[in-house]
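Worked problem 6 (solution included).
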Amino acid sequence: MGRPELPVDHTVPARGVLAEALRGLRAAAGLTYDELAAKTGRSPAALKRAASGRILPPWETVKEFTSACGIPPAGLRPVWLKARIAERGRLKQLRRPRAPELATTFGDLGEAMEYFYEAAGAPSLRQLQEQAGGRHLLPVSSAARIVNREALPASRQQCLAFLTACGLGGRTAERWAQAFDRITRHRDLDAAPAIRWEESSHVVALHPGVHRQFEGYVPRLSGDAGVRGSEAVRERTRDRDSLERPVVQRKSRAVHG
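Solution. The predicted structure is:
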């Protein structure tokens, strides 16, 4: 007879709850860890660690453990997800998104995307891609920029793919896609004056460093939609003038010097 198991480690309570559930399933199935190992292809030591509470086992291990005990894995998914969120500890630091109809800025969208990703247990980028429907819908590089708050989805389709990968239901995902449409529409309109300015033959070409500084500018939109558009254009114009003026002055001094 093997040595009795050590008590479950409840240092992270949600992780301890998962371990207790796994132990209960094994006991109910009347299986030893050696028998579980034969059914899952994993070592007895790995299965013991999964049910120890000291570590959070990968979801694949939990699925195999549960299936070997004759129980559908889906029932334990919420328990594992809660333990995963607790172990990362990041979701509690994020603000829960308001209704998508109240989102008005690029920041609102970015915060919502980050929240949904953490609430989904922060799956790997490859998992996100698979759950989104494939590389053509959500490339790994795009997923990385979205979850790191470096960029928004590149299109409505990619927005829906990302939200679906994070487990949002069809109706909720569609409402956030509508918010994406509404907010990014102003980004497209605001970009037009900058494009015309950069392409104009009447404007002195800017230094590459100045171009990069200007291209990195993203206006924060708030208030009435009509006011947002005009204010953003004015802000872009002021930034354009402030960036262009020193370059023009330097060129003028060079000509007359």
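Discussion: The mean pLDDT is 79.
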